[in-house]
Design a protein that fits this description.
Structural class: alpha+beta
Radius of gyration: 24 Å
CATH architecture of one domain: 4-Layer Sandwich
Oligomer: single chain
CATH superfamily of one domain: Aminohydrolase, N-terminal nucleophile (Ntn) domain
Strand content: 5-15%
Strand order of the largest sheet: 2-3-1-9-8-10
Largest sheet: 6 strands, antiparallel
């Protein structure tokens, strides 16, 4: 078929990139001699990658009475409490967290899910009822993929593991969505025959029944309470979550530190609670580019961390892109992917666990919501509906689709529904609708999968406290005006970090309608864990200099990659817009570099996955 035209194309530019295989589960009969079967019965087989001659049995567990077989990746913050519920002394239990889940399932079945706090992707086989369940954690920290056709359905935590069990047909709607968002949102993947299990859901075989065991919902409480009251609750929970995310007290820990409010807040809390060395890691892109080292170094000095700074060259950014794309599931067109991998490898030289500040914007009303809020006020003037405005707010290729996609591709996807519509037109307050989409889609399908895949590639455990399910739930209880109030973003997070719980409880605060008026004034000395300069600095974000990269360093390589008649994207995309972007024709808003990086990431992702089959 036309859309599968790239299947047999060859590219001499990118060599085969091998990644470590993950566990797989086959639902259906496979050859008994299939390689690396660790456990099987008539209907399912568990395939585990061997280390020498041994299977990694922490990925497989059988419940105490043998009814349930569990396969997967589990990290729990409430392990001790769960053992106590089972009547087991925590010090006496030598099993894995997966074994704990199998035992819980034997006691409570599906009800076990309400008790799990952490991140997990699970497959549970009920030998008695002959039922298979696929389960993903509430926020989507871990991923789980499954094939949708054939007599055998394959399940794995990484999309690349399923390469031998799918065709090379692209999902054209997923392609459209990637071009607009720089990631693939929802259950679709870029491969037509593979789907991703959504966060907080259970998929049952053989009925193919999907059930949500958790849903993100607006539940605003205490609207009569001042900002200080909500900040107090948030700080108390942050203190708890950060402590639970730390490694054992005698082991060092790392934090990815940009110098913004979110990563600085996590750094400060880690330094406050962890007694072993705390390492912080920051990046910059050389003398040609602005950076945030002034702020990250200030935080590192204030928190007395061992600070590491990595310079990433333009040559490295381009040359490391194929390797980075090989470690991702679906392609991600965020320019931070390569820096994330390189910084993770630097961190692994000092630590095994690294925390980050991801989640602050989605959960607490970061400034990226402001264009949508403006559109809600002036949409009737611009004649731009909410969905169109939301797609444009990503600042990728939404407005370019009619010219960028081949006519037959555009016709095939033009009227396909968008996964954002249900949340965008819900009855929740407008800001919380935007936040819900950011958490459910950008969070699960871009931010968290990027963190998970690239830290694992660097042999690290990456943890995102601000995306903890309890923090997310709490964020939906806070009145919207305490999250994004006018030009003051993340007011409640600033309040929580600035004062802390003990000072809040002893301080009387006048309640006003404006969240900004309740924040400490510049120059006050109340900041207990961060300098005032960090609390009140304007949001800038980590700017990766792809605009300069394509203008000065990568233009010829990009031409060879994207305008090649044998490129994987050629059957789907018109070359004229790409040609114009490479020549920077009409780049009024300096956005062509971001679009070109998105396309280069897509092309290279297709090539490395084509070669992986």
């Amino acid at each position: 078929m036309l859309f599968d035209a790239f299947k047999n194309r060859k590219s001499p530019k990118i060599e085969l990139i091998k990644t470590n295989p993950t566990w797989r589960v086959a639902w259906g009969k496979i050859n008994v001699n299939y390689e690396d079967i660790a456990w099987r019965d008539e209907k399912i087989s568990v395939i585990l990658p061997r280390t020498t001659s041994e299977f990694p049995m922490e990925k497989l567990a059988i419940s105490s009475r043998g009814q349930f077989v569990a396969v997967g990746d589990v990290w729990l913050t409430n392990r001790v409490q769960l053992l106590q519920k089972l009547g087991i002394e925590p010090d006496s239990f030598q099993g894995s967290s997966l074994q704990l889940v199998a035992n819980l399932w034997e006691r409570w079945g599906n009800e076990s899910l309400s008790q799990l706090v952490g991140m997990f992707a699970l497959v549970v086989w009920d030998r008695e009822k002959q039922m298979l369940r696929l389960i993903r954690d509430r926020i989507g920290v871990r991923t789980l993929y499954y094939t949708t056709t054939g007599s055998v359905r394959w399940i794995a935590p990484q999309l690349r593991t399923l390469a031998p069990h799918r065709s090379s047909d692209l999902d054209l709607v997923a392609l459209r969505d990637y071009l607009c968002c720089a990631f693939v949102p929802g259950e679709r993947t870029l491969w037509e025959q593979v789907r991703e299990l959504r966060p907080g859901t259970v998929l049952e075989f053989p009925d193919y029944k999907v059930t949500a065991y958790w849903q993100l919902q607006e539940q605003i409480i205490a609207i009569d309470q001042p900002l200080a009251w909500h900040g107090d609750r948030l700080r108390e929970l942050l203190d708890q979550v950060v402590q639970e995310y730390l490694p054992p007290a005698n082991e060092p820990v790392g934090v990815f530190l940009s110098g913004g409010l979110d990563s600085s807040s996590i750094t400060a809390l880690v330094a406050k609670f962890h007694k072993a060395p705390v390492h912080t890691f920051s990046i910059h892109f050389g003398s040609e580019c602005p950076n945030e080292l002034e702020f990250s170094s200030l935080v590192a000095s204030h928190c007395q961390t061992q600070h590491h700074i990595l310079e990433i060259t333009f040559k490295e950014m381009w040359s490391r892109l194929p390797e980075t794309m090989a470690y991702l599931d679906d392609p991600i067109g965020d320019p931070l992917t390569v820096p994330n991998l390189l910084l993770g490898r630097l961190a692994r030289e000092s630590v095994e666990v690294v925390l980050n500040g991801e989640g602050g914007d989605p959960c607490f009303g970061g400034p990226k919501n402001q264009p949508m809020l403006i559109n809600s006020l002036y949409g009737s003037v611009t004649n731009q509906d909410a969905l169109q405005a939301y797609l444009i707010s990503f600042q990728k290729c939404a407005v370019d689709l009619p010219q960028l996609l081949k006519p037959e591709v555009w016709t095939a996807v033009q009227t396909a529904p968008w996964v954002f519509a249900e949340d965008l037109y819900s009855q929740a307050s407008y800001l919380n609708r935007l936040m819900a989409m950011n958490i459910k889609f950008k969070g699960a399908d871009q931010i968290l999968t990027k963190v998970s895949n690239l830290t694992q590639a660097a042999l690290l455990q990456g943890r995102s406290p601000l995306f903890d399910q309890r923090i997310v739930d709490l964020s939906m209880e806070i009145p919207p005006e305490y999250k994004l109030s006018g030009v003051e973003e993340k007011a409640v997070l600033k309040q929580a970090i600035t004062y802390g719980t003990s000072s809040l409880r002893s301080r009387s605060v006048l309640q006003t309608d404006a969240a900004r008026s309740l924040l400490p004034r510049r120059g006050t000395t109340n900041a207990d864990i961060l300098p005032d300069k960090i609390i009140h600095r304007p949001k800038s974000g980590m700017m990766v200099p792809v605009q300069l990269g394509f203008r000065k360093y990568w233009q010829q390589e990009a031409r060879d990659l994207l305008l090649n008649k044998n490129a994987c994207i050629t059957p789907y995309l018109n070359q004229l817009p790409i040609h114009n972007w490479l020549n920077y024709q009409g780049d009024t808003w300096s956005r062509y570099g971001v679009k070109l990086w998105l396309l280069a990431s897509l092309e290279i992702w297709l090539q490395v996955n084509q070669k992986a089959q």
